[in-house]
Specification:
Elements lengths: L2 H7 L14 E4 L3 E5 L3 E6 L12 H19 L3 E10 L2 E4 L4 E10 L7 H6 L5 H17 L4 H5 L3 H15 L9 H17 L1 H9 L3 E3 L9 E3 L3 E3 L7 H4 E3 H14 L3 H15 L3 H24 L8 H25 L1
Antiparallel strand pairs: 1-2, 2-3, 3-6, 4-5, 4-6, 7-10, 8-9
Helix pairs in contact: 4-11, 6-7, 6-12, 7-13, 8-12, 10-11, 10-12, 12-13
Length: 337
C-alpha cells in the first residue's frame, strides 16, 4: 500500500482508535501531522535527503522511537507513544490489527495559535517568556548527555563536513534562492574561520560544551501554553543534534532576528549567559553558528521547491523565505570574516 493511500485514509475519522473532533493535516518536507482535537499523530515521509533517510518502514519505526526518546527530555507529557498503522480488510487503522504498513508518533495536541512563532506575529511574547526559555535551555544543556562519540561531532572535521554538505546540497539553488556572490562569500568566510580559529573549537571541546542538544531550536518548535514546551528535537541525524550548545542557542537567536525581534533575542542571550555561566568563547563562536543556522534554514526551505506535494503558490513563498535566510547567513558571515 502506498504512503499516499495511507495518508488519504488517515483523513477519515474512522481510522483512529478513539474519538476525534476533526482531522486537520499539516506537512513539512519530512512528515505529515494529523491533528484530531486531543492528539496529534506524526507520520514520516519516505524521503532520503542524504543527511536523512526514512526510505524503509523499519527506518521510520526506528526514528519514531528516537523522536519519542529525545523529546521526552523536554516534553515528557507531550510525547505519548509510537503506534503502528495497520491494514486489515482494506481498512487503515491507527493501533489496529492486521499488517503494519506505517508508524506514527502520538502526541498531545496543543493549539496552533499557542506556537511561539504565531504569538510573535501578534506581539504576545514578552521578556518574562524569554527569561523562562533561557532558564529551561540552560538547565537542559547542563544535564544533556556528552561522551567521546558526542564530542566528536564538535570537532573541526565534523563541523567542516557539515558545511561542505550544505554547500554541496545548495549548489542547485544558486540563482534561485541564493545569489552566486553570497554563496562564494559565505564559503570563503567559513573556510577562513575554520582555518584560523581551531583554538576556539578545541577550547569548546575541552570545556565540555559539545552535548546531545535539541538541534532544531526555533520559535516554530516552541509552544507557550499552560507551560513552555520545546519540542521536535532532531531525531534523524546524530550529527545535527550533537553539537556545541552555542549552535543550539544560535538557532533561536537567529530565528528571532529573522522575525525582527532583536529585543527578545538580546534578552534571551543575556539571560542564557547569566543562567549558564558561558564566557567569551561562547560569544566568539556564536556568529559562526548563527551563519550556519541561517544557511541550513535557507537550504531546508529551498528543498520545498523540489517537493511534488507542495503547491506552486507555496513554492513561490518558500523561495522568498529561503532568499531571506541566505541573505541573513551572508550578514553573519561578514561578522566572522
Amino acid at each position: 500500500m502506498s504512503q499516499k493511500a495511507i495518508i488519504e485514509a488517515l483523513k477519515n475519522p474512522d481510522a483512529y482508535d478513539e474519538k476525534v473532533f476533526y482531522v486537520k493535516v499539516l506537512q513539512t518536507h519530512i512528515s505529515y501531522i494529523f491533528l484530531t482535537g486531543r492528539y496529534a499523530y506524526k507520520v514520516k515521509k519516505p524521503v532520503n535527503f542524504g543527511f536523512l533517510d526514512f526510505t524503509t518502514l523499519e527506518k521510520r519505526r526506528f526514528y519514531c522511537e528516537e523522536e519519542l526518546r529525545l523529546n521526552r527530555r523536554l516534553c515528557g507529557d507531550m510525547y505519548i507513544d509510537v503506534l503502528p498503522i495497520t491494514l486489515s480488510d482494506g481498512s487503515v487503522k491507527i493501533n489496529g490489527s492486521g499488517k503494519i504498513v506505517e508508524y506514527a508518533v502520538k502526541m498531545k495536541e496543543l493549539p496552533q495559535e499557542a506556537l511561539m512563532s504565531e504569538l510573535l506575529k501578534k506581539g504576545r511574547v514578552d521578556m518574562n517568556v524569554m527569561d523562562e526559555i533561557a532558564r529551561i535551555l540552560s538547565d537542559f544543556h547542563k544535564k544533556a548527555e556528552t561522551n567521546g562519540k558526542i564530542e566528536s561531532y564538535g570537532s573541526i572535521d565534523t563541523v567542516r563536513f557539515n558545511w561542505d554538505e550544505n554547500f554541496d546540497q545548495t549548489r542547485e539553488f544558486i540563482g534561485r534562492t541564493i545569489e552566486h556572490q553570497d554563496y562564494s562569500f559565505i564559503h570563503r568566510a567559513v573556510q577562513e574561520f575554520l582555518k584560523n580559529r581551531k583554538d576556539l573549537f578545541r577550547l569548546r571541546l575541552r570545556k565540555g560544551r559539545i552535548k546531545e542538544c535539541h538541534g532544531d531550536l526555533h520559535s516554530g518548535n516552541i509552544f507557550i501554553a499552560d507551560r513552555i514546551y520545546i519540542y521536535d528535537a532532531i531525531e534523524f541525524n546524530e550529527r545535527f543534534r550533537c553539537c556545541d550548545v552555542a549552535s543550539d542557542i544560535a538557532f533561536l537567536l537567529m530565528d528571532l532576528e529573522f522575525l525582527n525581534k532583536s529585543d527578545l533575542s538580546n534578552r534571551f542571550l543575556i539571560k542564557y549567559l547569566e543562567y549558564s555561566g558561558e564566557e567569551e568563547d561562547f560569544l566568539e563562536v556564536l556568529p559562526f553558528y548563527k551563519c550556519y543556522r541561517a544557511y541550513v534554514r535557507g537550504k531546508v526551505t529551498s528543498f520545498k521547491l523540489n517537493d511534488p506535494n507542495i503547491t506552486e503558490e507555496e513554492k513561490e513563498r518558500s523561495k522568498e523565505i529561503a532568499r531571506k535566510y541566505f541573505q541573513m547567513s551572508r550578514q553573519y558571515a561578514e561578522e566572522i570574516f
